[in-house]
Write a structure and sequence with these properties.
InterPro entries: AAA+_ATPase, ABC_transporter-like_ATP-bd, P-loop_NTPase. The protein is α/β, with parallel strands linked by helices. It is 38% helix and 29% strand. Bound molecules: adenosine-5'-triphosphate.
Amino acid sequence: MEDRYIIELDGLTKRYGTLTAVDHLDLKIGKGEIFGLLGPNGAGKSTTILMMLGLTEPSAGRATVCGIDATVSPVKVKRKVGYLPDNVGFYDDMTGLENLMYIARLNRLSRKAAREKALQLLERVGLADVAGKKTGKYSRGMIQRLGLADVLIKNPEVIILDEPTLGIDPRGVREFLDLIVGLSREEGLTVLLSSHHLHQVQQVCDRVGLFVSGKLIAEGDIATLSARLFSSEPFIIEAAVDVPAGTTPELPAALILLRERLLGTADIKSVTYEKGTLKISCLRDCSAVIARAIVETGAGLTGLSKKAYGLDDIYQRYFEKQEAV
Ligand SMILES: Nc1ncnc2c1ncn2[C@@H]1O[C@H](COP(=O)(O)OP(=O)(O)OP(=O)(O)O)[C@@H](O)[C@H]1O
């Protein structure tokens, strides 16, 4: 069983005086998984990462990475884990190739091997054409890709990325995320991604963990989290309707009967109306029933869409719950 998990956190805890930054954290991450660590500022994400890297000692519990206790053998863990901080620095007056070769040399590669490895990685991260350009002239997106090449030099089994897409333009973000997915799928690399960007995390992570005040309050894939949280109303169907002019803005007269009819239908929980759109929450996908009812009422149906709950909604709902406690 141990082999299945590349990262295992057991009751991991960090206290700073009276503050518990990380509170009895239990988490298992499998090989090749892309796991998103999410949470507001101060939730304990960075402290957790530092403990996994053996850079800070837990007050209690254990962080095991590739079967190695990070506190007992931080140097061994460092060999297996590539860490990309949110602000990676390079020598501005050296080219991308020179910077990477320098790091490869620090990793004890011969000059020839360092050059080969650097060129291969520049190709892998899509920077081959700017290999000879000084990194001072690189965009933020290019620097982050070079950062990724930097952490890949030592052939890590795990990469930990802290807000890797901060300040990158949308195209650069897409390219960076594609690169991460490729590394995980093609090379079996395990990726831990700490981020505030819910949409990005949703696009690439197999599983996410939501952190609040040092505690992991939920973890799972998006569909599972969504089903757990929205079990009382898993579907929202939005119907754009064309109602006769001169009706009231709240609920046009023509729709009052329609609303009653819909509410009389099994599995439809609520119907609201705003600016030409009916919002219908249901326990199953009732699109067909809704479309028929609208058409039969005589209101024009101009659009019908089903909303799937995303990470934004999941996040929102968890925090609403937390605040209510
Ligand atoms: N060296 C330290 N000494 C005292 N308190 C600390 C120390 N490092 C972190 N903390 C506190 O521990 C808590 C967790 O901080 P941490 O940096 O792990 O959160 P985070 O989730 O990474 O936040 P961010 O998204 O802002 O990076 C915060 O309340 C922080 O102030």
